[in-house]
Amino acid sequence: MEVCGYFGGTNESAKTDDRKEFQRMLTFVKKKKIANIIVYSTDRFSRAGESAIHTLAKIRRIGINLVAVTQPADTQTSTGRFYQNLNLLFSKYDNDQRRDKTITGMRHRLLNGYWMGTAPIGYKNTRDEKNIPIIVPSDKASLIRKAFEWKANEDLSNAEIAKRLEKYGLKIYRQRLTDVFRNVVYCGLISHSLLNDQVVEGKHKPIVSKALFLKVHGIQEAKNHKSKHNKANENLPLKVFTKCEACKSPLTGYLVKKKNIYYYKCKTVGCSCNKNANDLHDKFTDILNLYQIDEKLIAPLKTQLKYTFEYFNTSNEDNIARLKYSLKGIEENINKIEERFVIGEIDGGLYQKYAKKYKGEKEGIEQEIQKNSLDSSNLDIYIDNSLELLCNLHNIWRLGNYNEKQKFQKLMFPDGITYDRKKDVVRTTKANSVFELMRSLSISFNKNKSGQKNKNVNLSAPVIATGFEPVTVCLEGRCSIQLSYAT
Ligand SMILES: [Zn+2]
């Protein structure tokens, strides 16, 4: 054979195929009329596994052979090509195994209390008497301790601490100081992503005491909490949740200090949509009252709801069985296409195309199955909780704190509410379908005073199955409720 060029010899890892030498070689063989790429073994060609098979298939198509000297294979036959592909997969497997071993080793070291990698500021890397790598306090350690003390005793901001440290000759960004104050390594502990949430006692010398570290950490936590707290103004729970009807932008809030009254206001410049906060809260609770149910209705509603959900569930069992059958078919197709790709019957492009198509279909069906399943074991708890909630709607909202209010609002009206300044009306577009169902049942119970078992089961079940239409509740002088389905 005539040799046209030599490639490699650098220290590039064959784990991925974006190696410079590898790419240079590929470009070279595609330009010149090359018949063979000769390697010592397939893992010298690539250890990228599946993607290497893909690359190899491409160069085979333009008539180039991969010759692995220590793993001879007749690549003119399908068996020979399969063997070579298999070797490529094994190279990747071998690589993965090595990686697993490394991780086990690293974890072991961490569990024994040894820091991994470059020493954090205030420490330096060295070796102990048994020649094991370890970190020891550096000449900057005393300054780091000072920083902790300033933080704990004087509650200085990180920017001020950074300034002071610079005067002492240590330049550090304040963002990095935040990391320093959070790193348990300074009080003699080890924490690492490989240890998950476990924290171990380190072999290194602490720079600060655990008490000092906790004191600083307490200050940091309080700071984080405070800034969040400011955003969550207890007086403006409907902020952002309410949108301006005219321009659809979310409402923010402000305080008129003279009167000590809060207002909601549209963000858009020039849009004059604003509203006294207490008034808007009243309008919102008026809407909640529409969903309030009488305590006397709890027992009958519970029975009725169980019927309804169970009816809904049985009509879905057929659906689920059908979906599972199609899912099986798609999984078989995925397996088939993989097989054909591995043995070289189809190329990478075609494989990608079909694999993507099938996987998309698979996801769609899985979601559909999820949607159609109802966890009946939780049904009782679910119904009880919802009914209890429905008896106390506006109290729950009035008495909750900011976060509880927000959660509750979102649960009731996932799309939020809108405020129409011109008509001074609050509108809801879509209510939680479960609440909507309970309300419709409660209305029909009130109508049906005869106490006979009604036929709601048959009426309501199709309602859920086809999904609820958006319900518009409009609060103007008189209250009109438009329900888009029969109760
Ligand atoms: Zn507006």
UniProtKB/TrEMBL annotation:
Specify the Resolvase/invertase-type recombinase catalytic domain's residue ranges. Answer: 1-113
Name the coiled-coil region(s): none
GO: which molecular function terms? DNA binding; DNA strand exchange activity
Tell me any Pfam family this protein matches: Recombinase
**Which stretches make up the Recombinase domain?**
120-226
The record's SUPFAM superfamilies line, in alphabetical order, gives: Resolvase-like (SSF53041)
Q: Which UniProt keywords apply?
A: DNA recombination, DNA-binding
Answer yes or no on keyword DNA-binding. Answer: yes
The signal peptide, as residue positions, is none
Family matches, as Gene3D superfamilies: Putative Large Serine Recombinase, Chain B, Domain 2, Resolvase, N-terminal catalytic domain
InterPro entries of this UniProt entry? DNA_bind_recomb_sf (IPR038109), DNA_bind_recombinase_dom (IPR011109), Resolv_N (IPR006119), Resolvase-like_N_sf (IPR036162), SSR_resolvase (IPR050639)
Q: What is this protein called?
A: Putative bacteriophage resolvase/recombinase
Query: Organism, per UniProt?
Result: Kordia algicida OT-1
